[in-house]
Automatic annotation (TrEMBL):
Top-level lineage group: Bacteria
Keywords tagged on the record: Membrane, Transmembrane, Transmembrane helix
Transmembrane segments: 12-31, 37-56
Protein name in the entry: AI-2E family transporter
Lineage summary: Bacteria, Pseudomonadati, Bacteroidota, Sphingobacteriia, Sphingobacteriales
Length: 64
């Protein structure tokens, strides 16, 4: 039986890996403008989480 594959399995895996890495790089490049906003949201969540828990438990505020 003759093997008619253009690429071997190892070559296909390498090509798929390169495509995934290229798309990941494009995604990071596209999101660079909102990277600061994403970091800011995590920072604000970290800083104000204890206050939020306090207001919900002590003063029975809505959890939304």
């Amino acid at each position: 039986m003759k093997n008619n594959e253009v690429f071997s399995e190892k070559e296909r895996n390498f090509i798929v890996l390169m495509i995934v890495l290229l798309l990941g790089a494009v995604l990071v490049y596209a999101l660079r403008g909102i990277f600061g906003a994403i970091l800011g949201t995590f920072l604000m969540y970290t800083l104000f989480r204890n206050l939020n828990v306090f207001l919900i438990e002590k003063w029975k505020w809505n959890n939304s």
